[in-house]
Amino acid sequence: MPDKAEARLEPGPEQVRYASILEKGMYVGLLLLFITFAIYALGIMRPYIPLDRISSYWSVNVHDYLHHANIKTGWHWVGMLHYGDFLNFIGIAILAGVTIICYLAVIPILLRNKDWVYATLAFLEVLVLSLAASGILAVGH
């Protein structure tokens, strides 16, 4: 009779899929951060805030910075992707959103395994994260 202490713990298929997608998403997001920063730093695209004025904003809080620079909050950055200093938001959005994709990918496995509780929790997590990312429940900044 095998000893229970020697039982091997192995990840389930949903954990493997989650980790696999998370790894790929992290690498894509990180690569995009490097590429878009290089585009910004090398001056390939014109920045919204000129480099000679950026240091004047370092001492102000976020609210004052957004007001003085005339930058709208929320998803308005998408309309500003033609500026080099906003281009890096693409990589940040991918890194922030990859968790939603991971949960969406594991839901079918959980349903196939009739793991109703975890499937429901994963679905609710997708809803909460998507709602938070949408800006519908914007609070604060």
Describe it.
The chain contains six helices and no strands. It has 141 residues and is mostly helical. α1 (13-41) runs antiparallel to α5.
Spans where pLDDT lies below 50 across 5 or more residues: none
Q: What count of helical segments does DSSP give? A: 6
The chain-level structural class is mainly alpha
Mass-distribution shape: elongated
Overall domain count: 1
Q: Spell the H/E element sequence.
A: HHHHHH
Residue share in helices? 55-70%
Please give the largest β-sheet: none
What separation lies between the terminal Cα atoms? 61 Å
Query: Could you tell me the mean pLDDT?
Result: 91
Q: Count all strands and give the number.
A: 0
Q: How large is the share of residues in beta strands?
A: under 5%
Whole-angstrom Rg: 21 Å
Provide a compact summary of the structure.
The protein is an all-alpha fold. The chain is built from six helices and no strands.
Give the topology, please.
Blueprint: H1 13-41, H2 51-54, H3 62-68, H4 84-87, H5 89-112, H6 116-134
Helix pairs in contact: 1-5, 5-6
List keywords for this structure.
mainly alpha, 141 residues, single chain, 0% strand, elongated
